[in-house]
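Working notes for the structural subgroup meeting. M.R. asked for a predicted model of this chain before we commit to crystallization trials. I am recording the input and output together here so anyone reviewing the notebook later can reproduce the run.

Input as submitted:
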Amino acid sequence: MKESGISNTDRAEVLIRALPYIQEYRGKTVVVKYGGNAMINRDLKAAVIRDVILMACVGIRTVLVHGGGPEIEAMLNTLGKESRFVRGFRYTDEETMEVVQMVLCGKVNKDITALVQQAGGRAIGLCGIDGALLRGRRFAGGELGLVGEIEAVDTSVLTAVLDSGAIPVVSSVALGEGEDAGSVLNVNADTAAAQIAAALGAEKLILMTDVRGILRDVDDPDSLIKIISREGLPDLIREGVVSKGMIPKVECCRLALDRGVRKAHIIDGRLPHALLIELFTDEGIGTMIEGAEHE
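Returned structure, recorded in token form:
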């Protein structure tokens, strides 16, 4: 008997092919940075949520870290506040930080948490302030306002959520310390995911983007670099293969790998079920960057 063109035998074969990967990753931690078009498109959003729930169901300790740039921009526009960017970062004054905190820690975080719950999973929404999960300081010079870099990660809250069998959904703000004590800081979601992955000793860091991965030729989508070592990344930057917005993503991967994360992945979140394809198939779907021990 067939449904949607797929026989029961085909379904069983798919599961059997995924079995070695399920066995390999069961009990291990995977940190996913969720962003880009996958957060905006309704169908893609539903696919990501189902992927994350399935990962948790097969025993993968899954942490979902999210940004929310488009939602923040929309709210600022509604309030009539013009956005300002410095070196690619959103300048964040106190009024903008209130919007960032309200949108990221409130609406976006709770919407994602609700979607997981509605799809049959169990999630707990957190932000970097909760349990002093993320602590940071403003960038030197203060030209970005309340934009900071992460100084420390306290994983105790995350570990408690993971141990309970739930999926932590984390928004990327940090609690200021030192001269910034008492302030809330806007931090980059890719960096937050990398720092969290390193602090948890994660097996993998996965960055969901709006490109296929690292392309040897940005004008040729078929020039995807599927596997590269961490040591090969500086050459790609020097050669200009990695440039512009891909540089900070690659730097986040390097940070995570240098601090013990075994593999980092940059994948195209515009493709349905990109997470499952990258995790549970030989071919994968994006670029996998291996740490030194895998060479």
